[in-house]
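Final paragraph of the annual report: two paired records, presented back to back.
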Amino acid sequence: MNIHTLIMEGQMHQAVFKLENIMNLEREIYQEIYRIEEEKSEAIIKKSGKIIEELSVSQEKLLGKIESLEHERIKLMESYKKSHKLHPPHGDVTLQDVIDSTDSKTAFSLKEAGIELKRILLKVKSIQDLNSRLIKDNMEFYDILISGLKNSSTLRSGYGRDGKEQGRVFNPVLFNIKA
């Protein structure tokens, strides 16, 4: 082995280590997002808008961190693509392309990090779908409730033969339905 090959292998391992580290950080953040989504489920069931809002603010901060890590990951993948002269048929370098270009020990570790990240992403998506359904159900409930309130408000309207007002609204419900 010549010195150039050793340097290239060292750079490859360093890039792969950084990539694995980024993926592990993302996994940890997504685990926190999952925990927040679980708290949101409880808040939705309890109809606690203030708690939902607070949790959403926390979640937005975490998503900002994810975005930053994703930019770093993309730059790292592009750098890896150039330095290792990878030319995947689909254009962008995928995790599988990196795995295929490394030794088996490194490939195994990187693949495990990818599997764990994907696992938590699927859990987050699942609970977000559940929360969306819960919110939709709550909105439908309130729409039905509002319709019932509107229907229970009656109006004896019109004027008598003498031109005087005959009736008033009974059980008035005055509020904006979209509020």
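The closing record of the year follows.
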Amino acid sequence: MKPLRKKLLVATAVAGLGLAAVGFAGPWGGHGMMGGGMGDCGMMGGGMGKGHGRMGGNPEQRMAMMQQHRAEQMELLAGRLKLTPEQQPAWKSFLTAQDAHHADKMKMWRNAPNQETGAVAHFEGMIQGMEQHLASLKTMAKATGDLYAALDPAQKKVMDDFFTSRPMHRMMRGGPSAPPAQPAQ
């Protein structure tokens, strides 16, 4: 083998190993809210309650990160919808309802019954939280319906795709290749 070719082969092998090392040294998992695992999940993050992992920090910091992510997503959706001035009031009502819904979810999470309560109190607290969540979802659904009624068909398709074709939604339906569930007949 010629010396130049041998050196080129060695350099290529070293570069390949270097790139492989960088790939393995990177954070595990994908990007997004669940990318590297929840920080307080012993199996997915930095261990139980240690506040490490991709979500980082304590629960309040994670909530702030989720709020920022949600705001960025709504900004992205608004840009894709190309809302007219006439549609802005419905959009603002939608955002207000969504903010209230997520604030209720955070409040419910903070006030969740702890392990020190008895079994009955635990389940009563869960029922109360679910009833509050249902009321919040109904308000959110009404605001979404009002916005949806103000959209043209192309905008409705954008909104449908935005809320139904997201990676976490596909994962919950059984993976990226799983088609949407067909309605019962």
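Helices lie at 3-25, 59-81, 88-110, 119-150, 153-164, 167-172. This concludes the annual technical report; the extension proposal builds directly on these records.
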